[in-house]
Amino acid sequence: MVQGKHAGLGAGDPSCTNMPSVPWLEVLFVFLFSGVRPSHPLQEVHVSRETIGKISAASKMMQCSAAVDILFLIDGSHSVGKGSFERSKHFAIMVCDALDINPERVRVGAIQFSSAPHLEFPLDSFSSQQEVKAKIKRMVFKGGRTETGLALKYLLRRGFPGGRNASVPQILIVITDGRSQGHVAVPTKQLKERGVTIFAVGVRFPRWEELHRLASEPREQHVLMAEQVEDATNGLLSTLSKSAVCTVASPDCKVQPHPCERKTLETVRELVGSVLCWRGSRRSDAVLAALCPFSSWKRVFITHPATCYRTTCPDPCDSQPCQNGGTCVPEGLDRYHCLCPPAFGVGANCAPKLSVECRIDVLFLLASSAGTTPEGFLRAKAFVKRFVQASLSEDSRARVGVARYSGELAVAVPVGEYQDVPDLLRSLDGVPFSGGATLTGSALRRAAELGFGSAARTGQDRPRRVLVLLTESPSQDEVAGPARHARARELLLLAVGTEAVRAELEELTGSPERVLVYAGPQDLFRRVPELREKLCSRPQPGCRTQSLDLLFMLDASASVGPENFAQMQSFVRSCMLQFEVNPDVTQVGLVVYGSQVQTAFGLDAHLTRAAVLRAMSQAPYLGGAGSAGTALLHVYDKVMTVQRGARPGVPKAVVVLTGGMGTEDAAVPVQKLRNNGISVLVVGVGPVLREALRRLAGPRDALIHVATYADLRYHQDTLIHWICGEAKRPVSLCKPSPCLHEGTCVLQNGSYRCECQDGWQGPHCGNRSLRGDAPKARGSRREPAGGQ
User: Fold this and answer.
1) How far apart are the C-alpha atoms of 247 and 241, rounded to whole Å?
2) Which residues of 629-659 are buried (b: 16+ CB within 10 A; e: fewer)?
3) Helix (H) or strand (E) holding 400
4) Cis ω on the peptide bond leading into residue 541 (within 30° of 0)?
5) What is the mean pLDDT of residues 132-148?
6) Cis omega (within 30 of 0) for bond into 218
7) Helices 148-158 and 185-193 sit at what angle, rounded to 10 degrees?
8) Compositional bias (Basic and acidic residues) spans (predicted)?
9) Could you tell me where the DSSP H helices lie in 98-184?
10) Mind listing the pLDDT tens digit for each residue in 147-199?
């Protein structure tokens, strides 16, 4: 389609006397276009995006609670079509959301019209908002001609069906495309003379001139567009508020005029040029050549400037409470929340908050070589500035310095020279790019010796010293020796870089856990919180002395794929290095699901960590369609039970790793596990967090969202922290029940006993009674496992 104010599609039409005409082209075009929904608004309010947001928010807060009769007159003709009819119903339902519907206040009725009017329900039929909305939803499109005039005459004869006559204000909301096949002027005038207020609401490609004829005065305030539901609802309620029919908003809210534009879709015939055609003559056998005019039919939008009246309310975001580039999202009239940039998500209002709670000196070592490029150097400086803004304040115990290197080391900002954050940021702006060779090893050795000043203090008097290297370029000299030299001087080495230098940075820092890898500029800034966490962290093992029954449930379906499944396995094996596996401390099991659900190994299958690691590597990839709900029920019935190795009185946790597909049926099973005393954490992998996964998180938000499978390793600390937290939670000795064969677990004096069903006996009701009619056996008291 040709773009522009007069854009359209056309069909060629050479107009020659003896040539057959092609009216079918025009008919075909009109038919094809009739099924097209407007691709851009046919009524548009010209205000800022912020004001549009306020108009939308106000439409949800406005309420009308007065004695008033409101009748919807909804066009159900073929020219509107079924799709636009459904949108008309949606608009009517949105308006009802703002009405206090009851017999003493707002009454609502509806008529559908096409070739003839049809009463859907009178105003006295329903006494609640829910009933009215449900009835509107059930309205069925009828089709036929657009006889708007007949529908208006029907109201003149019968009044508002079920209404209170003229004792209360009468509001008629006509929802139509304005393409009436009869006269509307006279019945419209007569209704207005009887005191009926008429709103004309357009759908599809409306004829605005007819809507203006239908609408009450002032017409600007009584003509709306149903396709923009929230805007139209606001406009209607704003007009009711201005006319004192009902007070619909807070006294602080205001109805204000805004410039707007309405568009009409018209079919025009446009002369394109001339083409050669042939003409015969009756007087002779001669055939003459001539030039014939050539036209095309086009659909064009004709614009009409207008003024639209809308209500906006003050919101807490007007004071711009979110700092550091945060986005304020209002929640009603007096509440809001801030969407913060990655580095500022920890503080209220995105304010800088020192999460580096230890006493620390940090030297940022920035590569400034030709291999890094000026752009890469600027990114590194921006990262340091974002870290400083997000992590330092007046009472910070952290001190920051900056050095750059290529062939030589230059300390640009000595550690601790600037305590004032603005001064430090200005100093960073002045650090220049140098270019040259990338001698990371030499710079590292020099930084370890000179980067932190004289630093004569030792022992408890000296703060922890951390060197953070930022580079995108491989070193041109050896780094292992200088790195050992730096660590010998009690420096903690951390590194931030791209995938291209990951291996070198891991060698330099001595551990993959001390390397932060980023994929692009925005991803780099997301590493600020992660760096803050590492600056003061001390290596800590997992819950080595805490009893725990731990089960991993891996999505092995086709939606994950074998390569991603292998990354899941690697991640779980890495996590297991933090746990002491034996029957008295941590037991580990594994379930995989895809085309089927399979217990790779149960909780009591392997007694050592080495055996668990081997078994995890051998877990099968299944493929097929996976059902997380079925897998969780399998865990509930066949894995996390005493008869399958679970220990009474020991905390139990299930970690679900999934790509998010096939989780729609898992909400009930996951709640069964939680109700049975089993903690469940969901690790969802994928660029978009699916709503089904959010529902699985539960009231404690037990959810970790990971963008890609390759990023799982960055969330290992978070996962282990959650597992260890669950291992310390108090547990019930009777959840899950240790009693078999439907025996009842009874807590008693810090222990438990099993009350067995007829025919069973023993501590856990696991033995058959000698006589089937024996009385219920009382199981002996049991002590909890793991020293609980």
Assistant:
1) 5
2) bebbbbbbeebbbbebbbbbbbbbbbbbbbb
3) strand 398-405
4) no
5) 93
6) yes
7) 30
8) 770-788
9) 129-137, 148-158
10) 999 999 999 999 999 998 778 899 999 999 888 888 899 999 999 999 999 99
CA angle 703, 706, 712 (to 5 degrees): 110
Q: What pLDDT, in 10s, does the model give residues 395-419?
A: 667 889 999 999 999 999 898 888 7
**Cα–Cα distance for residue pair 395/241, rounded to 1 Å:** 52
Token pair of 22, please? 């092609």
Q: What's the first-to-final CA gap in the chain, in angstroms?
A: 74
CA distances from 227 to 77, 230, 386 (A): 17, 9, 43
Q: Which residue has the tokens 């060197």?
A: 467
Instruction: Let me know how long the chain is.
Output: 788
| Number of C-beta neighbours around residue 273 at 10 A | 10
Q: Decide if 251 contacts 112 (C-beta within 8 A).
A: no
How many CA atoms lie less than 13 Å away from 267 in the CB half-sphere? Answer: 12
Nearest by Cα to 474 from 499, 504, 506: 504
Question: What pairing do the DSSP bridges indicate for beta strands 223-225 and 254-280?
Answer: unpaired
Q: 695: closest CA among 682, 678, 711?
A: 682
Cα 483 to its chain centre, rounded Å, is 43
Rounded (10°) CA dihedral 233, 236, 238, 242: -170
Give Rg (Cα) of the chain.
37
Dist. CA 418–CA 657, nearest whole Å: 46
Rounded to 5 degrees, φ, ψ at 775 are: -65, 165
Query: What are the tokens at 718?
Result: 């978070």
Tell me the two tokens of residue 218: 């002032």
Read off the tokens for 540: 């800590």
CA nearest neighbour of 59 among 199, 238, 222: 238
CA distances 274 to 29, 79, 288, 290, 297, Å, are 22, 35, 16, 10, 15
Residue written as token pair 């933090």: 578
Least confident stretch, 123-127, 535-539, 674-678 = 535-539
